[in-house]
Amino acid sequence: MQEPQPRFLPLAAKTVVCHTVTYMLMGALAAHFLHYEQIFNQPNSGLRPFDSLWIMLGAPLQIFRGILFASIFYLFREQFFGRKNGWLRMAWMLIGIGILGTFAAPSGSLEGFIFTTTPVLMQMRGYLEIVPQALLLSALLCYWINHPTRWLNWTLGALYCVAVALPMLGLLARAAGAKTP
């Protein structure tokens, strides 16, 4: 007998948590090892400055993308959850449609390789962040759905709180420093 499939709200909550935690982890690693501050702050980079309010709100705002992902995962829940290698199916869907095959022409997509002037190797550099994040998100979410435990709920909930709180504390510290004479 197959495991019961997750309902939407618990799936959405777990997707938001897993996505935000993996986003923050991979983003922090990429920011350090791929020198994002230098890249973001280059004139004409097309990116907001690294110390921008919007960049700092990146992790807390992932609630919206997490809900979007959950709405898609929910439609394919029988393919992803309670199945051997369901996480690989989910990861391939994220990588195939969300990264490589997107309709737009962002860096690293098939369209990006065709229509942008950014060198291919520079575009592929982003894979070091986004492909592992897709794999981590898929593996973590599928594991959590398939093996729900109290310790996992508390651990991932705490990590989510840290991922959301750190940028908010950074913004508060910046605001307090601006007011200090």
From TrEMBL:
<keyword id="KW-1133">Transmembrane helix</keyword>
<protein>
    <submittedName>
        <fullName>Uncharacterized protein</fullName>
    </submittedName>
</protein>
<feature type="transmembrane region" description="Helical">
    <location>
        <begin position="157"/>
        <end position="176"/>
    </location>
</feature>
<feature type="transmembrane region" description="Helical">
    <location>
        <begin position="12"/>
        <end position="34"/>
    </location>
</feature>
<feature type="transmembrane region" description="Helical">
    <location>
        <begin position="126"/>
        <end position="145"/>
    </location>
</feature>
<keyword id="KW-0812">Transmembrane</keyword>
<keyword id="KW-0472">Membrane</keyword>
<feature type="transmembrane region" description="Helical">
    <location>
        <begin position="54"/>
        <end position="75"/>
    </location>
</feature>
<feature type="transmembrane region" description="Helical">
    <location>
        <begin position="87"/>
        <end position="106"/>
    </location>
</feature>
